[in-house]
Protein backbone atom coordinates (compact mmCIF):
# COMPACT_ATOMS: atom_id res chain seq x y z
CA UNK A 1 0.00 0.00 0.00
CA UNK A 2 1.37 3.50 -0.82
CA UNK A 3 2.46 5.38 2.25
CA UNK A 4 3.57 8.89 3.09
CA UNK A 5 6.38 8.72 5.62
CA UNK A 6 8.03 11.58 7.48
CA UNK A 7 11.71 10.86 8.16
CA UNK A 8 13.28 13.38 10.55
CA UNK A 9 17.03 14.03 10.59
CA UNK A 10 17.36 12.65 7.07
CA UNK A 11 20.25 14.96 6.20
CA UNK A 12 22.42 13.47 8.95
CA UNK A 13 24.58 10.37 8.95
CA UNK A 14 22.14 7.52 9.66
CA UNK A 15 19.09 9.45 8.46
CA UNK A 16 20.56 9.87 4.97
CA UNK A 17 21.06 6.10 4.69
CA UNK A 18 17.49 5.49 5.87
CA UNK A 19 16.08 8.05 3.42
CA UNK A 20 18.10 6.57 0.53
CA UNK A 21 16.93 3.06 1.39
CA UNK A 22 13.23 3.99 1.62
CA UNK A 23 13.26 6.22 -1.48
CA UNK A 24 15.01 3.48 -3.51
CA UNK A 25 13.23 0.40 -2.17
CA UNK A 26 9.70 1.81 -2.01
CA UNK A 27 9.08 3.84 -5.17
CA UNK A 28 5.35 3.96 -4.39
CA UNK A 29 5.93 5.60 -1.00
CA UNK A 30 6.24 9.35 -0.59
CA UNK A 31 9.23 10.18 1.60
CA UNK A 32 9.40 13.59 3.27
CA UNK A 33 12.75 14.39 4.84
CA UNK A 34 12.49 16.98 7.63
CA UNK A 35 15.74 18.45 8.86
CA UNK A 36 16.85 21.68 10.50
CA UNK A 37 20.26 21.39 8.83
CA UNK A 38 22.31 21.97 11.95
CA UNK A 39 26.09 21.63 11.66
CA UNK A 40 25.43 17.84 11.33
CA UNK A 41 22.88 18.08 8.52
CA UNK A 42 24.23 17.99 4.98
CA UNK A 43 21.99 17.73 1.94
CA UNK A 44 24.96 16.66 -0.17
CA UNK A 45 24.53 13.32 1.63
CA UNK A 46 21.44 12.82 -0.53
CA UNK A 47 22.57 14.36 -3.82
CA UNK A 48 22.17 10.99 -5.58
CA UNK A 49 18.44 10.74 -4.80
CA UNK A 50 17.30 14.35 -4.38
CA UNK A 51 15.59 14.44 -7.78
CA UNK A 52 13.56 11.27 -7.30
CA UNK A 53 9.81 11.90 -7.68
CA UNK A 54 8.99 10.15 -4.37
CA UNK A 55 11.36 12.36 -2.32
CA UNK A 56 10.93 15.81 -0.80
CA UNK A 57 12.93 17.89 1.66
CA UNK A 58 11.53 20.37 4.19
CA UNK A 59 13.75 22.55 6.34
CA UNK A 60 12.11 22.74 9.75
CA UNK A 61 13.09 22.64 13.42
CA UNK A 62 11.36 19.99 15.55
CA UNK A 63 11.58 22.25 18.61
CA UNK A 64 8.93 24.47 16.97
CA UNK A 65 5.63 22.93 18.09
CA UNK A 66 3.38 25.09 15.90
CA UNK A 67 5.40 24.22 12.79
CA UNK A 68 5.14 20.50 13.59
CA UNK A 69 1.35 20.75 14.06
CA UNK A 70 0.98 22.67 10.81
CA UNK A 71 3.12 20.14 8.93
CA UNK A 72 1.06 17.20 10.18
CA UNK A 73 -2.18 19.04 9.39
CA UNK A 74 -1.16 19.73 5.79
CA UNK A 75 0.70 16.52 4.95
CA UNK A 76 -1.40 13.70 6.40
CA UNK A 77 1.48 11.30 7.11
CA UNK A 78 0.97 7.58 7.56
CA UNK A 79 4.11 7.18 9.60
CA UNK A 80 7.09 8.87 11.21
CA UNK A 81 10.65 7.56 11.46
CA UNK A 82 12.25 9.95 13.92
CA UNK A 83 16.03 10.28 13.83
CA UNK A 84 16.55 14.05 14.24
CA UNK A 85 18.68 14.62 17.31
CA UNK A 86 21.74 16.21 18.74
CA UNK A 87 23.93 13.12 18.61
CA UNK A 88 27.45 13.84 19.85
CA UNK A 89 28.25 12.96 23.48
CA UNK A 90 31.13 15.47 23.77
CA UNK A 91 28.89 18.34 22.64
CA UNK A 92 26.28 17.29 25.22
CA UNK A 93 28.88 17.75 27.94
CA UNK A 94 29.47 21.38 26.93
CA UNK A 95 25.85 22.28 26.00
CA UNK A 96 23.29 19.94 27.62
CA UNK A 97 20.35 22.30 27.03
CA UNK A 98 20.55 21.95 23.25
CA UNK A 99 20.12 18.20 23.77
CA UNK A 100 17.06 18.65 26.00
CA UNK A 101 15.51 21.02 23.47
CA UNK A 102 15.91 18.84 20.38
CA UNK A 103 15.96 15.33 21.79
CA UNK A 104 13.28 15.71 24.46
CA UNK A 105 11.09 18.71 23.55
CA UNK A 106 11.45 18.07 19.82
CA UNK A 107 10.36 14.44 20.24
CA UNK A 108 7.39 15.46 22.40
CA UNK A 109 6.38 18.05 19.77
CA UNK A 110 6.33 15.32 17.11
CA UNK A 111 4.39 12.96 19.39
CA UNK A 112 1.83 15.71 20.07
CA UNK A 113 1.47 16.51 16.38
CA UNK A 114 1.02 12.81 15.52
CA UNK A 115 -1.49 12.30 18.31
CA UNK A 116 -3.43 15.44 17.48
CA UNK A 117 -3.57 14.72 13.77
CA UNK A 118 -4.19 10.98 13.91
CA UNK A 119 -6.91 11.57 16.55
CA UNK A 120 -6.97 8.12 18.05
CA UNK A 121 -7.39 6.25 14.76
CA UNK A 122 -3.98 4.67 14.67
CA UNK A 123 -4.77 1.93 12.13
CA UNK A 124 -1.92 1.87 9.63
CA UNK A 125 -0.18 4.72 11.50
CA UNK A 126 3.20 4.31 13.16
CA UNK A 127 5.65 6.42 15.18
CA UNK A 128 9.15 4.91 15.10
CA UNK A 129 11.73 6.37 17.47
CA UNK A 130 15.37 5.66 16.60
CA UNK A 131 17.35 5.50 19.82
CA UNK A 132 20.67 4.40 21.24
CA UNK A 133 22.21 1.68 23.42
CA UNK A 134 23.66 4.49 25.58
CA UNK A 135 20.35 4.70 27.48
CA UNK A 136 21.37 1.48 29.27
CA UNK A 137 24.50 3.03 30.80
CA UNK A 138 27.78 1.16 30.94
CA UNK A 139 28.75 -2.51 31.18
CA UNK A 140 31.71 -3.95 33.05
CA UNK A 141 33.97 -6.57 31.46
CA UNK A 142 31.09 -8.99 30.79
CA UNK A 143 27.38 -9.05 29.92
CA UNK A 144 25.25 -7.49 27.22
CA UNK A 145 22.35 -5.05 27.02
CA UNK A 146 18.99 -6.71 26.35
CA UNK A 147 15.63 -5.02 25.83
CA UNK A 148 14.87 -5.51 29.54
CA UNK A 149 18.09 -3.92 30.85
CA UNK A 150 17.14 -1.03 33.16
CA UNK A 151 17.84 2.46 31.86
CA UNK A 152 20.88 4.08 33.50
CA UNK A 153 22.07 6.95 31.27
CA UNK A 154 25.26 8.79 32.26
CA UNK A 155 25.85 11.59 29.75
CA UNK A 156 23.51 14.50 29.02
CA UNK A 157 23.14 12.99 25.53
CA UNK A 158 22.08 9.57 26.80
CA UNK A 159 19.86 11.15 29.49
CA UNK A 160 18.05 13.10 26.77
CA UNK A 161 17.62 10.00 24.59
CA UNK A 162 16.39 7.97 27.60
CA UNK A 163 13.88 10.71 28.37
CA UNK A 164 12.60 10.73 24.78
CA UNK A 165 12.27 6.91 24.82
CA UNK A 166 10.17 7.20 27.99
CA UNK A 167 7.91 9.82 26.37
CA UNK A 168 7.41 7.63 23.30
CA UNK A 169 6.40 4.68 25.53
CA UNK A 170 4.18 6.94 27.63
CA UNK A 171 2.27 8.04 24.50
CA UNK A 172 1.73 4.37 23.65
CA UNK A 173 0.55 3.46 27.15
CA UNK A 174 -1.52 6.61 27.74
CA UNK A 175 -2.99 7.47 24.34
CA UNK A 176 -2.62 4.20 22.44
CA UNK A 177 -0.26 5.68 19.84
CA UNK A 178 1.30 2.94 17.68
CA UNK A 179 5.01 3.24 18.53
CA UNK A 180 8.17 1.21 18.06
CA UNK A 181 11.63 1.96 19.44
CA UNK A 182 15.03 0.59 18.55
CA UNK A 183 18.23 1.04 20.56
CA UNK A 184 21.30 0.68 18.40
CA UNK A 185 25.03 0.46 19.03
CA UNK A 186 27.77 2.60 17.37
CA UNK A 187 27.35 2.98 13.62
CA UNK A 188 30.12 3.44 11.09
CA UNK A 189 30.18 3.96 7.32
CA UNK A 190 30.00 6.67 4.67
CA UNK A 191 28.73 10.24 5.35
CA UNK A 192 29.67 10.08 9.05
CA UNK A 193 30.45 13.54 10.42
CA UNK A 194 34.18 13.80 11.22
CA UNK A 195 33.74 14.69 14.88
CA UNK A 196 33.03 11.02 15.68
CA UNK A 197 35.91 8.63 16.34
CA UNK A 198 36.22 6.72 13.03
CA UNK A 199 35.80 9.56 10.49
CA UNK A 200 37.82 11.91 12.71
CA UNK A 201 40.69 9.42 12.80
CA UNK A 202 40.52 8.80 9.02
CA UNK A 203 40.62 12.53 8.34
CA UNK A 204 43.47 13.17 10.77
CA UNK A 205 45.57 10.27 9.53
CA UNK A 206 45.04 11.40 5.94
CA UNK A 207 46.32 14.86 6.93
CA UNK A 208 49.12 13.46 9.17
CA UNK A 209 47.53 15.09 12.23
CA UNK A 210 47.40 13.62 15.78
CA UNK A 211 44.68 11.03 16.40
CA UNK A 212 43.21 11.75 19.85
CA UNK A 213 42.42 8.64 21.91
CA UNK A 214 40.59 9.37 25.16
CA UNK A 215 42.17 7.99 28.35
CA UNK A 216 44.17 4.85 27.50
CA UNK A 217 41.80 3.72 24.73
CA UNK A 218 40.42 0.91 26.93
CA UNK A 219 36.73 1.75 26.34
CA UNK A 220 34.79 -0.76 24.28
CA UNK A 221 32.16 -0.05 21.62
CA UNK A 222 30.06 -2.45 19.52
CA UNK A 223 30.28 -1.31 15.88
CA UNK A 224 27.61 -1.81 13.24
CA UNK A 225 27.70 -0.88 9.55
CA UNK A 226 25.22 1.97 9.01
CA UNK A 227 23.48 0.23 6.09
CA UNK A 228 22.77 -2.76 8.34
CA UNK A 229 21.16 -0.31 10.78
CA UNK A 230 19.05 1.19 7.97
CA UNK A 231 17.94 -2.32 6.97
CA UNK A 232 17.01 -3.10 10.59
CA UNK A 233 14.93 0.10 10.74
CA UNK A 234 13.14 -0.93 7.53
CA UNK A 235 12.36 -4.39 8.92
CA UNK A 236 11.20 -3.07 12.30
CA UNK A 237 9.11 -0.27 10.75
CA UNK A 238 7.25 -2.73 8.57
CA UNK A 239 7.04 -5.83 10.79
CA UNK A 240 7.22 -5.03 14.51
CA UNK A 241 4.13 -5.14 16.68
CA UNK A 242 3.02 -1.87 18.26
CA UNK A 243 4.79 -0.98 21.52
CA UNK A 244 7.79 -3.21 20.83
CA UNK A 245 11.44 -2.35 21.44
CA UNK A 246 14.38 -3.95 19.60
CA UNK A 247 18.09 -3.78 20.31
CA UNK A 248 20.28 -3.52 17.21
CA UNK A 249 24.00 -4.31 17.37
CA UNK A 250 26.90 -5.74 15.48
CA UNK A 251 28.16 -8.45 17.88
CA UNK A 252 31.38 -6.64 17.15
CA UNK A 253 33.16 -5.29 20.22
CA UNK A 254 36.38 -3.35 19.88
CA UNK A 255 38.56 -1.55 22.40
CA UNK A 256 39.08 1.95 20.98
CA UNK A 257 42.85 1.50 20.86
CA UNK A 258 42.58 -1.79 18.97
CA UNK A 259 40.16 -0.27 16.50
CA UNK A 260 42.46 2.72 15.92
CA UNK A 261 45.45 0.44 15.41
CA UNK A 262 43.48 -1.55 12.81
CA UNK A 263 42.47 1.69 11.11
CA UNK A 264 46.10 2.85 11.09
CA UNK A 265 47.15 -0.37 9.34
CA UNK A 266 44.41 0.04 6.71
CA UNK A 267 45.37 3.70 6.17
CA UNK A 268 49.08 2.84 5.77
CA UNK A 269 48.11 0.33 3.09
CA UNK A 270 45.67 2.65 1.26
CA UNK A 271 47.97 5.67 1.39
CA UNK A 272 50.99 3.52 0.51
CA UNK A 273 52.86 4.66 3.58
CA UNK A 274 55.52 2.68 5.49
CA UNK A 275 53.82 0.23 7.92
CA UNK A 276 53.65 1.93 11.35
CA UNK A 277 53.50 5.50 9.96
CA UNK A 278 49.88 6.19 10.92
CA UNK A 279 50.17 4.58 14.39
CA UNK A 280 52.79 7.19 15.27
CA UNK A 281 49.97 9.77 15.15
CA UNK A 282 48.07 8.13 18.05
CA UNK A 283 47.95 10.61 20.94
CA UNK A 284 46.44 9.73 24.30
CA UNK A 285 44.43 12.71 25.59
CA UNK A 286 42.35 13.57 28.67
CA UNK A 287 39.46 11.15 29.05
CA UNK A 288 35.84 12.11 28.29
CA UNK A 289 33.97 13.06 31.52
CA UNK A 290 31.75 10.18 32.66
CA UNK A 291 33.10 7.98 29.84
CA UNK A 292 31.08 4.73 29.70
CA UNK A 293 33.48 1.78 29.82
CA UNK A 294 31.79 -0.73 27.59
CA UNK A 295 28.70 -1.21 25.41
CA UNK A 296 27.59 -4.54 23.96
CA UNK A 297 24.22 -5.26 22.42
CA UNK A 298 22.32 -8.51 22.49
CA UNK A 299 20.20 -8.35 19.33
CA UNK A 300 18.86 -11.92 19.64
CA UNK A 301 15.25 -10.70 19.79
CA UNK A 302 15.57 -8.93 16.44
CA UNK A 303 17.28 -11.95 14.93
CA UNK A 304 14.71 -14.41 16.28
CA UNK A 305 11.53 -12.44 15.67
CA UNK A 306 12.34 -10.46 12.52
CA UNK A 307 15.19 -12.49 11.03
CA UNK A 308 17.72 -9.62 10.96
CA UNK A 309 21.47 -10.20 11.26
CA UNK A 310 24.37 -7.89 10.37
CA UNK A 311 25.61 -8.49 6.83
CA UNK A 312 29.14 -7.14 6.84
CA UNK A 313 32.33 -8.20 8.64
CA UNK A 314 33.94 -5.27 10.45
CA UNK A 315 37.36 -5.39 8.76
CA UNK A 316 35.69 -5.40 5.35
CA UNK A 317 33.30 -2.62 6.37
CA UNK A 318 36.08 -0.47 7.80
CA UNK A 319 38.11 -0.84 4.61
CA UNK A 320 35.02 0.07 2.55
CA UNK A 321 34.52 3.12 4.79
CA UNK A 322 38.15 4.24 4.38
CA UNK A 323 37.80 3.85 0.60
CA UNK A 324 34.69 6.03 0.63
CA UNK A 325 36.43 8.83 2.54
CA UNK A 326 39.48 8.70 0.30
CA UNK A 327 37.34 8.70 -2.85
CA UNK A 328 35.11 11.49 -1.58
CA UNK A 329 37.68 14.08 -0.69
CA UNK A 330 35.35 16.92 -1.75
CA UNK A 331 32.68 15.79 0.72
CA UNK A 332 35.23 15.67 3.52
CA UNK A 333 36.82 19.01 2.58
CA UNK A 334 33.41 20.69 2.34
CA UNK A 335 32.41 19.36 5.73
CA UNK A 336 35.64 20.29 7.48
CA UNK A 337 35.64 23.78 5.90
CA UNK A 338 31.94 24.39 6.61
CA UNK A 339 31.21 24.96 2.88
CA UNK A 340 28.60 22.20 2.86
CA UNK A 341 26.16 24.54 4.56
CA UNK A 342 25.96 26.55 1.33
CA UNK A 343 24.56 23.48 -0.48
CA UNK A 344 21.03 24.08 0.76
CA UNK A 345 21.08 27.71 -0.34
CA UNK A 346 22.28 26.80 -3.83
CA UNK A 347 20.24 23.67 -4.44
CA UNK A 348 16.93 24.49 -2.83
CA UNK A 349 16.25 28.12 -2.11
CA UNK A 350 16.58 29.18 -5.76
CA UNK A 351 14.21 26.53 -7.08
P1 LIG B 1 23.63 13.15 13.09
O1 LIG B 1 24.09 14.15 14.11
O2 LIG B 1 24.55 12.76 11.98
O3 LIG B 1 22.29 13.69 12.39
C1 LIG B 1 21.26 14.30 13.12
C2 LIG B 1 20.37 15.06 12.12
O4 LIG B 1 19.31 15.69 12.87
C3 LIG B 1 21.12 16.19 11.38
O5 LIG B 1 20.82 16.14 10.00
C4 LIG B 1 20.57 17.46 12.02
O6 LIG B 1 20.55 18.57 11.13
C5 LIG B 1 19.16 17.02 12.42
N1 LIG B 1 18.63 17.83 13.53
C6 LIG B 1 19.26 18.14 14.69
N2 LIG B 1 18.46 18.93 15.44
C7 LIG B 1 17.32 19.11 14.75
C8 LIG B 1 16.11 19.83 15.00
N3 LIG B 1 15.95 20.53 16.14
N4 LIG B 1 15.12 19.78 14.09
C9 LIG B 1 15.26 19.07 12.93
N5 LIG B 1 16.40 18.41 12.63
C10 LIG B 1 17.41 18.42 13.52
O7 LIG B 1 23.13 11.90 13.91
P2 LIG B 1 23.21 10.35 13.57
O8 LIG B 1 24.48 9.81 14.06
O9 LIG B 1 22.81 10.16 12.16
O10 LIG B 1 22.05 9.81 14.52
C11 LIG B 1 20.70 9.78 14.08
C12 LIG B 1 19.82 9.22 15.19
O11 LIG B 1 20.24 7.91 15.51
C13 LIG B 1 19.87 10.02 16.48
O12 LIG B 1 18.59 10.04 17.03
C14 LIG B 1 20.83 9.23 17.36
O13 LIG B 1 20.52 9.40 18.72
C15 LIG B 1 20.55 7.81 16.90
N6 LIG B 1 21.66 6.85 17.03
C16 LIG B 1 22.91 7.14 16.50
C17 LIG B 1 23.91 6.18 16.57
C18 LIG B 1 25.27 6.42 15.98
O14 LIG B 1 26.17 5.59 16.12
N7 LIG B 1 25.52 7.52 15.28
C19 LIG B 1 23.67 4.95 17.20
C20 LIG B 1 22.41 4.71 17.75
C21 LIG B 1 21.41 5.66 17.63
O1 LIG C 1 26.42 3.79 21.12
C1 LIG C 1 25.67 4.56 20.24
C2 LIG C 1 26.20 5.97 20.21
O2 LIG C 1 27.43 5.94 19.49
C3 LIG C 1 25.23 6.96 19.56
O3 LIG C 1 24.06 7.03 20.31
C4 LIG C 1 25.87 8.35 19.45
O4 LIG C 1 25.01 9.24 18.78
C5 LIG C 1 27.17 8.22 18.69
O5 LIG C 1 27.82 9.47 18.62
C6 LIG C 1 28.08 7.18 19.34
O6 LIG C 1 28.55 7.65 20.62
P1 LIG C 1 30.05 7.44 21.12
O7 LIG C 1 30.33 8.45 22.15
O8 LIG C 1 30.30 6.03 21.45
O9 LIG C 1 30.83 7.78 19.74
P2 LIG C 1 32.18 8.58 19.46
O10 LIG C 1 32.56 8.32 18.05
O11 LIG C 1 32.10 9.99 19.92
O12 LIG C 1 33.23 7.83 20.40
C7 LIG C 1 33.50 6.45 20.24
C8 LIG C 1 34.51 6.06 21.30
O13 LIG C 1 35.77 6.69 21.00
C9 LIG C 1 34.16 6.54 22.69
O14 LIG C 1 34.61 5.58 23.64
C10 LIG C 1 34.94 7.84 22.86
C11 LIG C 1 36.19 7.58 22.05
N1 LIG C 1 36.78 8.75 21.38
C12 LIG C 1 35.97 9.58 20.67
C13 LIG C 1 36.49 10.67 19.99
C14 LIG C 1 35.58 11.61 19.23
C15 LIG C 1 38.15 8.94 21.40
O15 LIG C 1 38.90 8.16 22.03
N2 LIG C 1 38.67 10.00 20.73
C16 LIG C 1 37.90 10.88 20.04
O16 LIG C 1 38.44 11.87 19.45
UniProtKB/TrEMBL annotation:
Task: Give every NAD(P)-binding domain span.
Answer: 6-321
Task: List cofactor names only.
Answer: NAD(+)
Q: Which Gene3D superfamilies does the UniProt record give?
A: NAD(P)-binding Rossmann-like Domain (3.40.50.720), UDP-galactose 4-epimerase, domain 1 (3.90.25.10)
| Name recorded for this polypeptide | dTDP-glucose 4,6-dehydratase
Gene Ontology molecular-function annotations: dTDP-glucose 4,6-dehydratase activity
Organism for this UniProt entry: Pedobacter yulinensis
Q: Which reaction does it catalyse?
A: dTDP-alpha-D-glucose = dTDP-4-dehydro-6-deoxy-alpha-D-glucose + H2O
User: Taxonomically, which superkingdom?
Assistant: Bacteria
Per the UniProt entry, the Enzyme Commission number(s) are 4.2.1.46
Instruction: Spell out the family assignment given in the record's similarity comment.
Output: Belongs to the NAD(P)-dependent epimerase/dehydratase family. dTDP-glucose dehydratase subfamily.
Which keywords, in A-to-Z order, does the entry hold?
Answer: Lyase, NAD
The biological processes this protein is annotated with in GO are: nucleotide-sugar metabolic process
